[in-house]
């Protein structure tokens, strides 16, 4: 077990992103490949959860596209992610806010945390 942690710390590139947690609204800009070209694409939504630790940590973002909810899971150390920007800090009382999936419209709003 210690060998695995050593290899993860030593050889897997750890990127420095701003601190964010469940309830925060963030914009993730990542590179997508179309044929032989790459271009940046943004995904803006609410963080539903963060899970895992170290090199295998992931986070899930949910956004509404029309009336359809779209969720995307990103590895925190994915080489395709070029930037993460925190737009709003949300005030929630739990680490995984899956109850947002059942909410629509005004009921889905998250209070903004005051600084």
From TrEMBL:
GO cellular component, one term: cytosolic large ribosomal subunit
Domain of life per record: Bacteria
Gene3D superfamilies: 2.30.30.790
High-level lineage: Bacteria, Pseudomonadati, Bacteroidota, Flavobacteriia, Flavobacteriales
NCBIfam families for the chain: rplS_bact
Signal sequence bounds: none
Pfam families named in the record: Ribosomal_L19 (PF01245)
Function of the molecule: This protein is located at the 30S-50S ribosomal subunit interface and may play a role in the structure and function of the aminoacyl-tRNA binding site.
Residue stretches in coiled coil: none
UniProt record similarity statement: Belongs to the bacterial ribosomal protein bL19 family.
GO MF: structural constituent of ribosome
A biological-process GO annotation: translation
The species this protein was found in: Thermaurantimonas aggregans
Keywords: Ribonucleoprotein, Ribosomal protein
InterPro entries, per database record: Ribosomal_bL19, Ribosomal_bL19_sf, Translation_prot_SH3-like_sf
Protein name in the entry: Large ribosomal subunit protein bL19
Gene behind this protein: rplS
């Amino acid at each position: 077990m210690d060998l695995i942690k050593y290899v993860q710390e030593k050889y897997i590139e750890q990127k420095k992103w701003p601190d964010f947690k469940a309830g925060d609204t963030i914009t993730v800009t990542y590179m997508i490949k179309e044929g032989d070209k790459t271009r940046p694409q943004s995904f803006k939504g609410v963080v539903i959860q963060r899970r895992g630790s170290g090199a295998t940590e992931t986070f899930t973002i949910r956004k509404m596209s029309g009336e359809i909810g779209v969720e995307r899971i990103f590895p925190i150390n994915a080489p395709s992610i070029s930037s993460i920007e925190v737009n709003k800090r949300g005030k929630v009382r739990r680490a995984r806010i899956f109850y947002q999936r059942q909410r629509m419209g005004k009921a889905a709003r998250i209070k903004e945390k005051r600084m």
